[in-house]
Amino acid sequence: MPETAFLDARGEVLRDLPDFAREPETLRALYTAMVRARTFDAKAIALQRTGRLGTYASSLGQEAVSVGVAAAMAEEDVFLPSFREHGGQLWRGVTPEELFLYWGGDERGNDFAGPRQDFPVCVPVAAQFPHAAGVALAMQQTGEGVAVAIGGDGATSKGDFYEALNVVGAWDLPAVFVINNNQWAISMPRTEQTRARTLADKAVAAGLPGEQVDGNDVIAVREATARAIGRARGGEGGTLVECVSYRLGDHTTADDASRYRDDAEVSAHWKEEPLIRLRNHLVAEHGWGKAEEDALLRSCHDEIEAAAERYLATAPQPARAMFAHLYASLPEDVAAQAGEAGDG
Amino acid sequence: MAEHTMIDAIRMALSRALDEDETVILFGQDIGIDGGVFRATNGLMQRFGSGRVRDTPLSETVIAGMCVGAAAHGLRPVAEIQFMGFLYSAIDQLANHAARLRNRTRGRLSCPMVLRAPFGGGIKAPEHHSESMEAMLAHIPGLRVVVPGSPTRAYGLLLAAIRDPDPVVFLEPKRLYRAGGEPVEDTGAALPIEQAEVLQEGDDVTLISWGAMLTEAREAVETLADEGISAELVDLSSLKPIDRATLRASVEKTGRCVIVHEAPLTAGLGAEIAADLAEHCLISLLAPVRRVTGYDTVMPYLRLEASYLPSTDRVLRAVRDVMEFA
Ligand SMILES: Cc1ncc(C[n+]2csc(CCOP(=O)(O)OP(=O)(O)O)c2C)c(N)n1
Ligand SMILES: [Mg+2]
């Protein structure tokens, strides 16, 4: 099963483009979102390296997966991301400042003003898939919305993933499971994670359609996800979409990938990264020039810098905040401890 | 002699075990070429081969469940769970299988396995990477739960755990991994797996703790000494079973007790220890047993982590309270 792509690594058109990909504004929006995600990543890493952010998982090289998936969603759909899908969260309306707060170790970063029904990132691998099945169950009852969960190639080895996929199939739930196959799970390459030919093949056992697309082609990701969401919305049940991309960075800032991965492999994959191909296409077909590119880089830079400033200026919560959202109303038994926490 | 950190000592014990017993096999995520996220297995795959030091696909259920099968069938699996926060799905395998296989089969099959997991806070790790949920494990009949408090203890207790005929969860206080070194001799000698260790003798009050909180407990003992209070410090080490004899003997001597743990208060191990002392040492007790623990809150993200972890000040306040009581 070959990966479906519309643009090749250089941005040449491989097949008839879907309608949305003929609209210059849409393509610019997708490109902007990927540049924004990359700018956010770079700033997050810089903050972490200077002790001003916690451990951070960069999405470098996988921006098309995250952005393409989120771009295919409607506002009322619910996004359940893993910890590496900043581009999608930003697209959905989570602010860079909120993301910085979360990665800086402040729970308020999860209380985002934008997509109020979206889940916070899921750190325990694959747990978001059963949640998505549950969200989809609730949606099935109201007849509105699709649950879209995204996880990594490693996540497909967990029971949580298989079990959730199974119930999505058994109950025809309106859920789309997306795999960001960045070909590594920390130090384990995709080829050692499973003998499955593709990760999309894992849908077969659940009786669901599974499809593999080029995860570096934002058009392909968006198109396949949109079709899957359309089926779910039309009552035809779930889909598994595997997006084949590549983790160009370390697993997180706590990782040193040079311990287990050849630089040559990384360099080779830089030639396939998702931004250049769309930029080339925009240049060739839609009059994107140096002026537009410079303006975009500047506005992303300014936005992210300003967000980082606001994050850095945000004082930590008081110690008592540990208790503030533990329950809808704090039991007296636990409330007694809040006083002690207050005075350190 | 060279100084060894706790992570060095753990690696040394693992290496020793692989060397001395060909049935020992290591499983885990990223324990091979990457040497484990904390480098506990650094170099072991290169030395013992990828057949004995195996990177598993990403599944804690598989890691724990395969340990059960492999252990019952002649291997001695020593598996790593990357962080305690990812151990919960393995609890099913531990509680329903590992801890019961011997009992269910009237001794016909057994489960000599070790599940290692780093636990506890204090290193500014991400969400789900800092909890101390040892009481959940200590509640499981048939399991052993061990926490080393120093490099030397880590070396000797890990060897004991690996050689033990029953399943052991070996919880490693990650704040101590690189917190300091001491010379650890690779003698192959195990330490008694069930014994608490009296780290410092004293007469006025007993401090009981384990893992990383021994740091604050030790600081408190030093400050108290300056104030003329003689505190005895006990490293519990074995959370299940509990070396009740050592704890009772200490409290019978001092008449006062403060228990310090990072885990939440309610249904924490401090409760079990306090109850045991109330049942058996009432006559000797001069003051109520006090607990200094983490709060009954979700472990906060890193910005509030320091407010969650019991401080030396909190330990000192509790000790002064019991000293003033009588
Ligand atoms: C249940 C669980 N086990 C282990 C971990 C530690 N861990 C964090 S990310 C990761 C690898 C995930 O790989 P993959 O699913 O491919 O996602 P990627 O990091 O590549 O985006 C591991 C083992 C975890 N977060 N959750
Ligand atoms: Mg991956």
List the helices and strands and how they pair.
The complex is a heterodimer of chains A (344) and B (326).
Chain A: H1 24-49, H2 63-71, E1 78-80, H3 86-92, H4 96-103, H5 128-142, E2 147-152, H6 159-170, E3 175-181, E4 184-185, E5 188-189, H7 190-193, E6 210-214, H8 218-233, E7 239-244, H9 263-270, H10 274-286, H11 290-312, H12 321-324, H13 332-342
Parallel strand pairs in A: 1-2, 2-3, 3-7, 6-7
Antiparallel strand pairs in A: 4-5
Helix pairs in contact in A: 1-2, 1-3, 1-10, 1-11, 2-3, 2-8, 4-11, 5-6
Chain B: H1 6-20, E1 24-28, H2 44-48, E2 53-55, H3 60-72, E3 76-80, H4 88-98, H5 101-104, E4 114-119, H6 134-138, E5 144-146, H7 151-163, E6 168-173, E7 197-200, E8 205-209, H8 214-226, E9 231-235, E10 238-240, H9 244-254, E11 257-264, H10 269-280, E12 290-294, H11 302-308, H12 312-325
Parallel strand pairs in B: 1-2, 1-3, 3-4, 4-6, 5-6, 8-9, 8-11, 11-12
Antiparallel strand pairs in B: 5-10, 7-9
The structure holds thiamine diphosphate and magnesium ion.
Magnesium ion binds at residues 152-154, 182, 184-185 of chain A.
Task: Characterise this structure.
The complex is a heterodimer of chains A (344) and B (326). Chain A is α/β, with parallel strands linked by helices. Chain A is 45% helix and 9% strand. Chain A folds into two domains: 19-313, Thiamin diphosphate (ThDP)-binding fold, Pyr/PP domains (Rossmann fold), CATH 3.40.50; 319-344, no CATH class. In chain A, strand 2, helix 6 and strand 3 form a beta-alpha-beta unit. The longest helix of chain A is centred in the N-terminal third of the chain and has 26 residues, at 24-49. The N and C termini of chain A lie far apart (59 Å). The model of chain A has no long low-confidence stretch (mean pLDDT 97). Chain B is an alpha/beta fold. Chain B has two domains: 3-183, Rossmann fold, CATH 3.40.50.970; 197-324, Rossmann fold (3-Layer(aba) Sandwich). Chain B has helices at 6-20, 44-48, 60-72, 88-98, 101-104, 134-138, 151-163, 214-226, 244-254, 269-280, 302-308, 312-325, and strands spanning 24-28, 53-55, 76-80, 114-119, 144-146, 168-173, 197-200, 205-209, 231-235, 238-240, 257-264, 290-294. Chain B has a seven-stranded mixed β-sheet, with helices on both faces. A five-stranded mixed β-sheet of chain B has the order 7-9-8-11-12, sandwiched between helices. Classes of the chains: A alpha/beta (344), B alpha/beta (326). The complex binds thiamine diphosphate and magnesium ion.
